[in-house]
Design a protein that fits this description.
- 35% of the residues lie in helices and 19% in strands.
- It is built from 16 helices and 16 strands.
- Strands 1-5-6-11-10-9-7-8 form an eight-stranded mixed sheet, with helices on both faces. A five-stranded mixed sheet has the order 13-12-14-15-16, with helices on both faces.
- A hairpin with an 8-residue loop joins strand 9 and strand 10.
- It is elongated and about 90 Å long.
- The two termini are 45 Å apart.
- Bound molecules: histidyl-adenosine monophosphate.
- The site of histidyl-adenosine monophosphate (HAM) has 27 residues, from strand 6, strand 10, strand 11 and helix 12.
Length: 437
């Protein structure tokens, strides 16, 4: 063990900067969101895939792209101490999903529609809506070439956002065409920016030959006019690419989904071709991108697979939850149906059996327990019962138990009067409660 680790043994440890604990009651909002996601994914027949959090670094260098921000400066990469392998925490899941699809020959009998939820890692500067560990929901449709699946992907997000009650989310779309079309545009773009080299900031000058498309993405206000007049990729697209793009737009409009074309939308990852899109909000400050994705027909080959068309998106779940909150939606914290008050530890063997029977009948029960060996005064137990949010306290007093009974005390308005009930019908009584589970 290194000296540094041992010396700090008694100090309080805190989470890594930009990586958050998700605690109750907030975690209930996450569970609710995850339930909504699973339900909507089922409606579109997308199936769950779970790939490892750690992958070979080479997967992202080749897949995400060597000259992207993610690979250049944001990856958590390390050497495995035991065997020297170069590994990275996944900054995104698309390359991992494609690797798994190739490794397990997933598309041998036709296309596959997949989704995942899980943590991603990017060493970015933490701020509201931007974290170093963040949760992404993603969907990938592998082995489908047609524009109807591009549209389906966006309809799915639109449907999910409607289910979540989100408002004022706009959709921007663009087409990056085929590689040859992008290449012709790239040549024109480099020539244009070379002509105006002195107007480029240092970041853009550095990117000019490695990733000129990303210059179009610049947030630098002094470069806006320059970027505005730059050659537009849409003007370099051939008939087939334009047709694909037009079909996507038409299919969205057929479903009354509004979109705008943003010719400067290029996305920050290298693998895209044809359709790219983002779902954006103005209500979260600088981190307004809720969801981004597009088609990536070349990625399978890049990662050693057979040519396979594919399209997908990723969504930041922290941002979605922040927007839900920003728009004023509240959710009541979950509460147990009943709280078990236990005046005397002698009653525990009997009490714990009854509680298990209640749970088997679908009733959620919080059993009183305390920090020390004492069960605590009745007053403090009732205080905790109240704070738990339960509708009833069940009091397992020795006298009642001796008569095979328990006292039921309502904790909320409308719960009726306090009564004593026989243990034989307590489960039947409890099952009339609206269970929270
Ligand atoms: P991305 O645009 O890098 O795409 O990320 C997708 C979404 O993840 C963003 O729109 C944002 O909501 C969220 N996100 C990204 N970085 C952070 C962060 N540091 N903190 C919080 N949220 C963040 C991808 O990752 C692609 N894999 C999407 C895709 C799937 N394309 C095709 N298939």
């Amino acid at each position: 063990m290194s000296e540094k680790l041992v010396a700090t043994k008694s100090e309080k440890l805190t989470a890594v900067k930009g990586m958050n604990d998700i605690l109750p009651p907030d975690s209930a909002r996450w569970e609710w969101l995850e339930d909504q996601v699973r339900s909507v994914m089922g409606l579109y027949a997308y199936r769950n895939i779970r790939t490892p959090i750690v992958e070979p670094t080479a997967l992202f260098v080749r897949g995400t792209g060597e000259s992207t921000d993610i690979v250049e400066k944001e990856m958590y990469s390390f050497e495995d101490k035991l065997n020297g392998e170069q590994l990275s925490l996944r900054p995104e899941s698309t390359p991992g999903v494609v690797r798994a699809a190739i490794e397990h020959n997933l598309t041998y009998d036709g296309g596959k529609r997949l989704y995942y939820m899980g943590p991603m890692f990017r060493h970015e500067r933490p701020q509201r809506g931007r974290y170093r560990q963040f949760y992404q929901l993603g969907a990938e449709a592998l082995g489908f070439a047609g524009p109807e699946v591009d549209a389906e992907m966006m309809l799915l997000v639109h449907h999910l956002f409607a289910r979540l009650g989100l408002r004022n989310v706009r959709i921007e779309i663009n087409s990056l065409g085929r590689p040859a079309e992008r290449q012709a545009h790239r040549v024109a773009l480099i020539a244009y920016f070379e002509q105006h080299f002195e107007l480029l900031d240092t970041e853009a000058q550095r990117r000019l030959h490695s990733n000129p498309l990303r210059i179009l993405d610049t947030k630098n206000p002094t470069m806006q006019a320059l970027v505005q007049d730059a050659p537009q990729l849409l003007n370099y697209l051939g008939d087939a690419s334009l047709q694909h793009f037009d079909s996507v737009k038409r299919l969205l409009s057929a479903c009354a989904v509004k979109w705008t074309v943003n010719p400067r939308l290029v996305r920050g990852l290298d693998y895209y071709s044809h359709t790219v899109f983002e779902f954006l909000t103005d209500e979260l400050g600088a981190q307004g991108a809720l969801c981004g994705g597009g088609r990536y027909d070349g990625l399978f080959e890049l990662l050693g697979g057979k040519p396979t068309p594919a399209v997908g998106w990723g969504m930041g779940l922290e941002r979605v939850l922040e927007l839900i909150q920003e728009q004023g939606q509240t959710r009541t914290a979950p509460a147990p149906d009943v709280y078990a008050v236990i005046p005397d530890a002698d009653a525990l063997p009997m009490t714990i059996q009854v509680l298990n029977a209640l749970r088997a009948a679908g009733i959620s029960v919080q059993m009183h327990a305390s920090l020390d060996q004492n069960t605590g005064s009745m007053k403090s137990q009732f205080k905790k019962a109240d704070a738990s949010g339960a509708r009833y306290a069940l009091i397992f007093g020795n006298d009642e138990l001796a008569q095979n009974a328990v006292t039921v005390k309502p904790l909320r308005d409308g719960g009726g009067a306090q009564v004593t009930r026989s243990l034989t019908d307590i489960a039947a009584w409890a099952s009339t409660l609206q269970s929270h589970t």
